[in-house]
Write a structure and sequence with these properties.
Blueprint lengths: L1 H18 L3 H21 L1 H33 L3 H6 L4 H29 L8 H25 L6 H13 L16 H5 L2 H13 L7 H25 L6
Helix pairs in contact: 1-5, 2-3, 2-5, 3-5, 3-6, 3-7, 3-9, 5-6, 6-9, 6-10, 9-10
Length: about 240
């Protein structure tokens, strides 16, 4: 109970200043519009809908991979992290507090995107539970990756480019904004290595936007997400350098 209270208190403190800047919400909502326009022109409705599915994943995963390192490094640069280092808060509570704040901040844009998918019938209601589960696992994995990046980045001027590059490799390169079917069968295993591919495919399969739903594929989707989830949190607990400030 004490750890939960610490996590919620930290999340509330971090969320308040973020809510004063609505620019990120605007960016998260309109950023997919550029890709949607391009993909819709190239491939029509069938290809354009994948942008909306990918934007869902991007909103929550990038809140950890891109947003969280910038906040953590800023706190270290401003010496505010010293307060947490000296307190009973450990790195897991520190990570969860930051991650929960980023998740709450990403909820408005995520709800807008899900609303569009439901209204356009690209996503049926029956797909909502699996979508929420995939998004939560994607968020948790993104936060773990982002926190690890933050603890190893010592130059505050580099955190933006490094975290953005990590987000690019996780979101734009793998088949998140485009169908996995477009990747040659012999190279799909490379795409399936990344957890964002698994998360997006689970949502697309549940919504009927992808037919790669064999037992082998489903196991690979869940397996990659589970391995990243467990592996990254193990690294956070055992290998993070959050106390070296």
């Amino acid at each position: 109970m004490k750890r939960l209270y610490q996590t919620l208190s930290l999340a509330e403190m971090l969320l308040r200043p973020a809510l004063r800047d609505p620019s990120d919400h605007i960016f998260n909502i309109f950023f997919p519009a550029v890709f949607l326009l391009v993909y819709w022109i190239i491939g029509g409705k069938s290809l354009g809908q994948h942008v909306l599915f990918g934007s869902l994943i991007g909103a929550v995963v990038n809140s950890g991979i891109v947003g969280l390192p910038q906040i953590v490094v800023s706190y270290r640069y401003w010496k505010l992290q010293d307060m947490y280092v000296a307190s009973p808060v450990n790195q897991v509570v520190y990570l969860l507090g930051h991650g929960l704040a980023r998740l709450l901040y990403a909820i408005p844009s995520t709800l807008v995107l899900m609303g569009i998918l439901l209204v356009t019938r690209f996503m049926p209601l029956r797909a909502v539970p699996i979508t929420v589960l995939a998004l939560l696992v994607g968020w948790a994995t993104g936060c773990a990756v982002g926190f690890m990046l933050a603890t190893y980045i010592h130059n505050a001027t580099q955190v933006g480019s490094i975290s953005s590059l990590a987000g690019l490799l996780m979101i734009l390169v793998p088949p998140v904004f485009y169908p996995l079917e477009l990747v040659s069968a012999k190279w799909r295993w490379l795409a399936l290595v990344l957890p964002t591919t698994g998360a997006s495919q689970l949502i697309k399969v549940a919504s009927g936007a992808s037919h790669l739903n064999s037992v082998g594929y489903m196991l690979s989707y869940w397996g990659s997400m589970a391995l990243y989830f467990v592996g990254c949190f193990w690294l956070v607990v055992r290998r993070s350098r959050w106390r070296e400030v």
